[in-house]
Amino acid sequence: MYAFEYHRPSSIKEAASLARKLADAKLIAGGQSMVPALKLRLARPTAMIDLNDLPELRGISVVGTNVVIGALTRHAEVAASKDVLMTLPVLAKVAAGIGDHQVRNMGTLGGAIANNDPAADYPAALLGLGATVTTNKRDIPADKFFTGMYETALKPGEIIASVSFPMAKRAAYIKFRNPASRFALVGVFVSETAGNVRVAVTGAAPCVFRVKNMEKALASKFAPEAIARIRVPADNLNSDLHAGAEYRSHLITVLAQRAVEAALSGK
Amino acid sequence: MNAPVIGTRVERKEDYRFLTGSGTYTDDVALPGQTCAYFLRSQHAHAKINRIDISKAKTAPGVIEVFTGADLPGSVGGLPCGWLITDVNGQPMKEPKHPLLAQGKVRYVGDHVAVVIAETLNQAKDACELIEVDYEVLPAVVNVADARKPGAAQVHDIAPDNTCYVWALGDKTAVDKAFAQAAHVTKLDFINNRLIPNAIEPRAAVASYSRGDDSYTLYVTSQNPHVARLLMTAFVLGLPEHKLRVIAPDVGGGFGSKIFLYAEETVLTWASKQVNRPIKWTAERSESFVSDAHGRDHLTSAELALDKNGGFLALRVHTTANMGAYLSTFASCIPTILYATLLAGQYTTPAIYCEVTAVFTNTAPVDAYRGAGRPEASYVIERLVSTAAREMKIPDADIRRRNFIKEFPYQTPVALCYDTGDYEATLTEALKLADVAGFEARRKEAAARGKLRGLGYSAYIEACGLAPSNVAGSLGARAGLFEAGEVRVHPTGKVTVFTGSHSHGQGHETTFAQVVADRLGLGVDDVDIVHGDTGRILFGMGTYGSRSIAVGGTAIVKALDKIVAKGKRIAAHLLEAPDADIEFKDGKFTVAGTDRQVPFAQVALSAYVPHHYPLDKLEPGLNESAVYDPTNFTFPAGSHICEVEVDPDTGATKIVNFTAVDDFGKTINPMIVEGQVHGGLAQGIGQALLEACVYDRETGQLLTGTYLDYAVPRADDLPSFKVTTRETPCTHNPLGVKGCGEAGAIGAPAAVINAIVDALAHLGIRDIEMPATPQRVWQALQSAKKERIAT
């Protein structure tokens, strides 16, 4: 690890001002991606701004037909939350499937989506539910938030405060794990909210994306067979040691069908 | 009378220490004035070093010294190879120098270029980044097929065509003749995938130098500290052997990778005198991936000739084995002596010929990894046998039974002589335990759910208890393979045993204590086992090849025999009876046919307080040692049956049942044996389904250098194993033991792949390369589908 300045602000305002002021500073929440990168000397920030003293960033609440989760809420808290389990159980399941116990006890919603790892689970949930990201500046719809590999719409000094997830009539997330990393080799999130069907795919491409032709087919008939013949072309999909683009393309269709099946059965 | 302790599930004595975090591993050692070392490693697979500039690094904060290859005196040698293979033309293998720090060239990613010694690790790392190396990058070659192609990059000038040796075993003429007359020939080509050992504790060393008496102490993660000392002093550093003490304290797993003498601990020992301060180095996980010796990596073409009834006539095997960039300590004997000699398996195949070409590549050195040669041999045989069975429509169990060796001792056509075995018994038991009779029903039930079930067999054999020194010597070993043990009985009758075996997860502290407790009629807690310290232990060849109980255990038994013999003479004096009348049983010396007896502890006390003692005939004290050189290998064998379920939509394979029936001879502690089998199976299944060390074919970069890309098995990759043992005692050691450490890793891979192929055979699939990842299985299904459409 290289040496860096360490800041632990006590308000979002102070955190944002530090982030604007300090060049090459990094925000740190749960640190589950950042700390390994530091230890491997892959990241060399001049300063770290630790958000862990900002309780206003934590917590889970149900607001109307939405579940609102603070950015600093740990995956384990989401997984165990009665509110989430009652109103949007699929999200608890997504959180419970991230990493391992250690990761879930430290990792946060805000950190996960700000990092936007191409194989992360939460981006699929945000995009697959049409969630809204609230920062200290504005509201950003999920469709606009994830812009590319490890890239988001966040601007310098912008800090995620919370994410608002609409409740779903039915939804499911099916992840096929990379045998080594256990990240999603391909993960498909399917949901049906008030008159709106969404299919979001993670792990398969540089950034999470929606499969609009599957959404359309499912909107007219929410059943696995409706999408059995819909293929996402392999052209823009990832190809690596563990899965070529063709295989990923195939898995998207298989997993999307399984997700629809799971959504229908409520499991 | 004490309850019997041999054959009982005594809880591991060492577990309290390990589970409460009170073990002492090398990295726990903290010596006064200790410094930290960090190695600069090559980021290129193959490059000429034009210049190294260490001037900035030397003046960086906290830096004590920086050494490169140029700083090592000419008297310092390279890392030696402990086994000389003589090629088919009678020429010695090519042994390029394996420098401690690169000399003008680097030959694999991770090759050690320089070492920085600093006050803190972070300072050493910072300084390392200031070393400027002017590399001239050369083309690299990483796989064995490419290495032999004309025009391939040459790893060493002294090894043309990258060939270390071409070696052969067996009667080629007899094999060719048998093939000419065969009713059926089954042929398969295999890659035995390259593996990275991944011991949970990375390699580490702490070296210190004492100016007062010009001596060194090295703490190191070693499976055989005496061998490390011998090689390091006599063959590399030119130090007097008695001036180096090597301590291998608690060691967290080795799987072979900690047998070898590595550059890091050797450099540290040398450098500790130069800087006159203790130096610590602990590998980070990333370093372990690139610099631990890897395992396997064979390319093989094999053929089995059969008669019309499925009787085996002959086996022909051609293997090209990857040695990596340099010869590691035992690299040369793994794909030869520990591989080709096992190709008879459990069968009476009368003629066998095996040719092995060992090649250098721009990859980390390859050496013994759990099973070492024997998993590769077992895989060749058992994949061929199951394939032949399918082709000839003979059930798997039947073709094996038809060819089992049934009479012992059995001289194989590939040099080994099996002393004993009962292959029919392990197979029969495995068939029962795996409920093979109910398989077809389970297959149908799975098919109804859209899943493909398969059943795979593997009847493996291994040669353990390495080894008769004279035999090993005639085959090229440059060391003996005996073991030493010492039993020190204290005045109170408590016992400390010093063994040359080394425990790094095997549970010797318990198993060996059970042997001693049984022999002397003591409690297991009355006996402590000491290992891993050249300063305390007579000598030792260490632990590998499942040799500890068979060789190390026997040395202890031999020493115990001497203790009992001396005890009898002391007891005879105390009981005023002739020596010959004394019997020893259940911890008491008794005058035969009388009730006159004296307990063991009293005899021990007499030995140390010799007031009433035959001083004219016997020395005081009760301390005996023995060195045991085995007369033969031991031959553990067994039958593994694997049942898988393949999801044809994703290609994912799930192991739903795994049965292992092993014959390890007598078992001392069944719980520890089961643990060893479980661990071995996990690694064998890991090889079959998950693990693959992959280098980039062009650049020679390690593509699987973290756990994000290298898949080690996790608990949920594995089923709940069904394991049991049969006991056919070894005929040539007093405990009747054979060894159990590697069996799982040897038997499992073929069982798993045979099961997957069985699940997919009806679709026209005949082979799946290891590891059978979901993508690979899916691709095989796709190709098979295309072929079916085409025809």
- CATH-assigned fold name of the largest domain in chain A: Uridine Diphospho-n-acetylenolpyruvylglucosamine Reductase, domain 3
Proportion in helices of chain B:
25-40%
- What is the number of helices of chain A? 11
Q: What's the number of structural domains of chain A?
A: 2
DSSP strand tally of chain A: 14
Rg of Cα set of chain A: 18 Å
**Can you tell me the CATH architecture of the largest domain in chain B?**
2-Layer Sandwich
Number of domains of chain B: 3
Content-based structural category of chain B: alpha+beta
Q: For the residues shown, what is the average pLDDT of chain A?
A: 97
Calculate the terminal CA-CA distance of chain B, rounded to whole Å.
75 Å
| Helix run count of chain B | 19
State the name of the first-level CATH class of the largest domain in chain A.
Answer: Alpha Beta
Describe the structure.
The complex is a heterodimer of chains A (267) and B (791). The model of chain A has no long low-confidence stretch (mean pLDDT 97). The radius of gyration of chain A is 18 Å and the shape is globular. Chain A has 2 domains: 5-166, Uridine Diphospho-n-acetylenolpyruvylglucosamine Reductase, domain 3; 170-265, CO dehydrogenase flavoprotein, C-terminal domain (Enolase-like, domain 1, 2-Layer Sandwich). A 5-stranded antiparallel beta sheet of chain A has the order 4-5-10-6-7. By secondary structure, chain A is of the alpha+beta class. Chain A has helices at residues 12-21, 34-39, 75-80, 82-87, 89-96, 101-106, 109-115, 122-129, 142-145, 212-220, 245-265; strands at residues 5-7, 25-28, 47-50, 60-63, 66-70, 132-135, 139-141, 146-148, 151-152, 160-166, 170-177, 184-193, 196-202, 209-210. In chain A, strand 4 (60-63) and strand 5 (66-70) form a beta hairpin. With 791 residues, chain B is an alpha+beta fold. Chain B folds into 3 domains: 18-138 and 200-253 and 258-291, Aldehyde Oxidoreductase, domain 3 (Alpha-Beta Complex), CATH 3.90.1170; 298-466 and 632-790, Aldehyde oxidase/xanthine dehydrogenase, molybdopterin binding domain (Aldehyde Oxidoreductase, domain 4), CATH 3.30.365; 482-628, Aldehyde oxidase/xanthine dehydrogenase, molybdopterin binding domain (Aldehyde Oxidoreductase, domain 4, 2-Layer Sandwich). Chain B contains 19 helices and 28 strands. Chain B has a 7-stranded mixed beta sheet with strand order 3-5-1-12-9-10-11, sandwiched between helices. A 5-stranded mixed beta sheet of chain B has the order 7-15-14-13-8, with helices on both faces. In chain B, strands 18-26-27-28 form a 4-stranded mixed beta sheet, with helices on both faces. Chain B is globular, with a radius of gyration of 27 Å. The model of chain B has no long low-confidence stretch (mean pLDDT 97). Classes of the chains: A alpha+beta (267), B alpha+beta (791). Chains A and B meet through helix 11 of A and helix 3 and helix 19 of B.
